[in-house]
Amino acid sequence: MENPVAPSRKQAPSDAPSHASSLRGHVSETGRLSLPAELRRAVGLERGGPVRIEVVDGAIRIRTMTEVKNSIRALARESGLADKASVADFLGWRADERADEAETGKR
Predict the structure, then answer these.
(1) Could you tell me what percent of the chain has a pLDDT over 70?
(2) Do residues 26 and 34 make contact, with C-beta atoms less than 8 angstroms apart?
(3) Quick check: 17 and 7 in contact, CB under 8 A?
(4) pLDDT tens for residues 16-48?
């Protein structure tokens, strides 16, 4: 019997599996997980790359670092901080804090 969730090989190929589909995988005794090629293609990991692994509501969530960075940038834009915060600004704030702490410690 054919699995109704798994995409049929006769169907047109899709770049990304639908949210309704699932693929079977296997975790080795050493914890290694191989991701099927169609999943890697769907998220831009054809040749591998860094990922962020989280447990969310009891499920393992794997996100590419590109997706994580895009999410952080979107949050910064929504908060209005995107144009106000930079690495240089942060380092300047920290230098000011250290100077204040040093001045407070001298008194």
Answers:
(1) 74
(2) yes
(3) yes
(4) 555 546 788 889 999 999 888 888 888 889 888
Helices of type H across 1-107: 37-42, 65-79, 87-106
Tokens encoding 58: 């009891």
Say how many C-beta atoms besides its own lie within 10 A of residue 32's C-beta.
Answer: 8
> What pLDDT does residue 83 have?
67
CA atoms of 66 and 13, how far apart (whole Å): 25
Q: Name every residue whose Cβ is closer than 8 Å to that of residue 84 and which is 6 or more positions away in sequence.
A: none
Dist. CA 87–CA 3, nearest whole Å: 51
| CA–CA dist 32, 30 (Å, integer) | 6
Residue 15's Cβ-count burial label (10 Å; 0-12, 13-18, 19+) is exposed
